[in-house]
Amino acid sequence: MLEVRYLGHSAVWLSDGESTMVIDPFLTGNPKGALSVDELQTDWVVVTHAHGDHWGDSVALSKKGATLVSSPEITGHSQNLGAPQTLGMNTGGTYKFKGGWLKWFPAWHTSSFPDGTYGGNPMGVLIELGGKRIYHAGDTALFSDLNLVGEYDLDLALVPIGDHFTMGPDDALKALEWLKPKQVVPIHYNTFAPIVQDGVAFVERAARLGIGGKALESGQSLSL
Ligand code: NI
Ligand code: MN
């Protein structure tokens, strides 16, 4: 069993009842943020790229005991800023942890820190936890190598639909044809003016492809 809680924008909290993980913890300054750093304790922080709306509160959460897993550029810069526990990986790499594993894939986007420091290549991440597999696509354009991720029997795909900085709804639907997940939760929309989209309409279009899912409001959960 896996609980998936949407924290707004691209931030997602996962728990199998033992291990907890947050992907792209943009909490402080997130107009749709469901939790503050003070309210969040987690074992793992997983970051797809260095942009402030993804890397976000990673250093603060590491200081609270979480291990930050990301590219070497992101873990290195975070260490310089005081993150005590980090694990640097790169595209293609798999890491096994108690209760599951994660594996990094490419994403077509850019990656630099808010201060301009180079952030390495942006990535997507496949996570197995609680016996369920989810894919967080990060910020990406549509690209056909998502077909490869579709070979992993995904229970859930978290895909950006905001357009402007990432895929929009039409491209995200094409991505779902390639990812072939059982369910989808749209992310990276309605946070800022340029990325306003209709998440409910997107999920209805996905349903016509035979893919379930829900447009979660920030703070809402679903169980897999
Ligand atoms: Ni980005
Ligand atoms: Mn972003």
In helices, the fraction of residues equals 10-25%
The CATH C-level class name: Alpha Beta
Computed structural class: alpha/beta
- Determine the N-to-C terminus distance: 6 Å
Order of helices and strands, N to C?
EEEEHHEHEEEEEHEHEHEE
Any idea what the radius of gyration is?
Answer: 16 Å
Q: Round the mean pLDDT to the nearest integer and report it.
A: 98
Shape: globular
**SS summary, helix count:** 6
Q: Which CATH-level-2 architecture? A: 4-Layer Sandwich
Low-confidence stretches: none
How many beta-strand segments? 14
CATH fold-level label: Metallo-beta-lactamase, Chain A
- The tally of domains stands at 1
> What is the CATH homology-level superfamily?
Ribonuclease Z/Hydroxyacylglutathione hydrolase-like
Q: Can you summarize the main beta sheet?
A: 7 strands, mixed
Strands of the biggest beta sheet: in what spatial order? Answer: 6-5-4-3-2-1-14
Bound molecule kinds, no repeats = nickel (II) ion, manganese (II) ion
Kindly estimate the percentage of residues that lie in beta strands according to DSSP: 25-35%
Layout: helices, strands, pairs:
Elements: E1 3-8, E2 11-15, E3 20-23, E4 44-46, H1 52-55, H2 58-63, E5 67-70, H3 72-80, E6 86-88, E7 94-97, E8 100-106, E9 123-129, E10 132-136, H4 146-149, E11 156-160, H5 169-179, E12 183-187, H6 199-207, E13 212-213, E14 221-223
Parallel strand pairs: 3-4, 4-5, 5-6, 10-11, 11-12, 12-13
Antiparallel strand pairs: 1-2, 1-14, 2-3, 7-8, 8-9, 9-10
The structure holds nickel (II) ion and manganese (II) ion.
Can you walk through the features of this model?
The protein is 19% helix and 28% strand. It is an alpha/beta fold and 224 residues long. It has one domain (3-223): Metallo-beta-lactamase, Chain A (4-Layer Sandwich), CATH 3.60.15. The protein contains six helices and 14 strands. It is globular. Helix 5 links the parallel strand 11 (156-160) and strand 12 (183-187). The protein has helices at residues 52-55, 58-63, 72-80, 146-149, 169-179, 199-207, and strands at residues 3-8, 11-15, 20-23, 44-46, 67-70, 86-88, 94-97, 100-106, 123-129, 132-136, 156-160, 183-187, 212-213, 221-223. The model has no long low-confidence stretch (mean pLDDT 98). The protein has a seven-stranded mixed β-sheet with strand order 6-5-4-3-2-1-14. Strands 7-8-9-10-11-12-13 form a seven-stranded mixed β-sheet, covered by helices on one side. Manganese (II) ion is lined by residues 51, 53-54, 139, 165, 188.
